[in-house]
Amino acid sequence: MDFYLTALLQGLCFSGIALGIYISMKIFNIPDITTDGSYTLGGGFTGVLLLNNQPSYIILPAVILAGAIAGALTGIIHTKLKINALLAGILVMTALYSINLTLMGRSNLPLNALPTIFSLVNLASNTNQNTLFILLLFVLIITLLIGYLLKTDFGIAMRATGNSETMIRALGVNTDRMKITGLAIANALTAVSGYLMTQYQGFADISMGIGIVIIGLGSVIIAEAFINWFKVTSVWISLLLVLSGAIIFQFVLAFTLSIGIDATLLKLVTAVFVLLIVSLPRLSFNRSA
Amino acid sequence: MIEINQIHKVFNKGKANQVDAINGIDLKTNDGEFLVIVGSNGSGKTTLLNLVAGSVLPSSGTINIDGNDVTNLPDHKRSQWIARVFQNPVSGTASDLSIIDNFRLAAIRTKPKGLSVGVDDTFKKLVKDKIATLGMGLENKTEQPIGTLSGGQRQALTLLMSIMDSCKVLLLDEPTAALDPRSAEIVMKTADKLIKDFQLTAILITHNLKDAYNYGNRIIQMREGIIVKDLNTEKKAELKQNDLYNWFG
Question: Cβ distance B90 to A164 under 8 Å?
Fold first, then answer.
């Protein structure tokens, strides 16, 4: 059972990535893999700031800002230099590896007994319950903020940018600036995931972000399956489905480990699982057609 | 209203595939003028319209709108004067967004898109009342994604969206080309009514010579990037539909 509790907690940690990928991929139609770098940036930066005894009220804003800058860079490279979004993301992600390593000073930063957000805030006596409540609170705040943002005039313009660029330009929106802002928000959310994960697992690692983008993609794809299935148009329900996607994803991984599949094969299982979700609706669709 | 001086547009300058799309056009339209542009494919009609809209910037020459020099302004800045209806209904609306969200964006075309929620009950009622004037029964579908509607319905809504915010110039780029004859007629009649009711300066590009004959109070013909015929209101009134066909003979 502990297995699944861990999966739930990890899923909640990853909700930032899931929402970030939802914004970049579903709202802006941009496959953004800056994620791998900005997640480690968020985690590594958190580790460094904690080790330097910085107060919590500085760490979170600093991490959000760092992630946003990384995303904005990808956005600027993509829109202003007219470079393919995928390549722009790869460029920034690659550069971030060196930056993260320089920032961290070495490849692994154990936090040891340093006070983290999970030990500073006390919502319940049981450690696991306390962690769960803090994570839920985080996810709730993030979801409310993003949900509200998407409802505002700015948010509608954001959603239209990925949908019909000709239209939204004719309606007076600078789409370049919109995409840069969107990628900044997406990567800020990803960095928050790194922030939570580093404190949850008690260390930051230079390789913690490798292949992490698949978690976001998987979550969004799971959510999309439900969105198409039930023809969901509500922004709030879509966001909730994305969050559930992040948790379901971790449950599936926990399940594969619990039935005794070698942890070495975990990434392979992850890839096959995402492939399955992507292809299932198409396969069944073909049969009925 | 719109003043175009000695405008030239060259694509791929100096390369083997150089295209001289617009070769020195002077054009001045008055307030409330409904200008129809006809011409065969490749005559430069759409480029001219894109130059006015700002989605293409000229190689040389100047463009003034409402007394402002807009020659180097990009399209999203010119939107404070200009509303557009595109040939492809998909281009003028955001398919996955609801009708109400599409209208919200149109209602703040000339304003900044801020961090407040603008879609409230008052706004919903305003949009429903506007849509009801079309008589298409769409007023109860405002929460539906606009992509679920037919091309004709979308073009009619796009027209309505253009007058949701202050608008001086309406650009219509073959708005009925993708529509069946019935929807095309509804869209053209709606456009004509809005142009008259709101005293808009409008430019219509069309390949449909019947529309070119029936609508508008000035007509120009383009060929190879220049204006070859320009008929004002009186001359257009004297024009017979057959004469128009002969232009393309």
Answer: yes
Residue among B53, B75, B118 whose CB faces A153 most closely:
B118
With a CB cutoff of 8 Å and minimum separation 6, the contacts of A52 are none
What are the residue boundaries of the structural domains of chain A, listed by start?
2-288
Q: Structure tokens of A83? A: 């470079």
CATH number where B77 lies: 3.40.50.300
Q: Nearest-5° angle of CA A266, CA A216, CA A129?
A: 80
Asked whether the predicted pLDDT for residue A104 surpasses 50, the reply is yes
The structural domain count of chain B equals 1
**Contact predicate B156/B186, CB 8 Å:** yes
CB atoms within 10 A of CB A275: 12
Question: Which of A157, A166, A167 is opposite residue B113, by nearest beta carbon?
Answer: A157
B70-93 per-residue burial string, b: 16 or more CB within 10 A, e: under 16: bbebebbebbbbbbbbbbbbbbbb
Q: pLDDT of A114-140, one tens digit each?
A: 899 998 888 888 888 999 999 999 999
Residue A287 pLDDT exceeds 60: no
Given the candidates 1.20.58, 1.10.8, 1.10.3470, 2.60.40, the CATH classification of the domain at A2-288 is: 1.10.3470
Residue of B nearest to A163 (CA): B94
Q: For residue A285, is pLDDT > 60? A: no
Q: Which residue has the tokens 């009609």?
A: B45
Distance separating alpha carbons of residues A215 and A234, to the nearest angstrom: 23
Above 50 in pLDDT, residue A289?
A: no
CA dihedral (B155, B161, B162, B163) positive or negative: positive
Q: Could B115 and A164 be called an inter-chain contact, meaning their C-beta atoms sit closer than 8 Å?
A: no
Stretch B75-84: mean pLDDT, rounded? 93
pTM of the model as a whole:
0.89
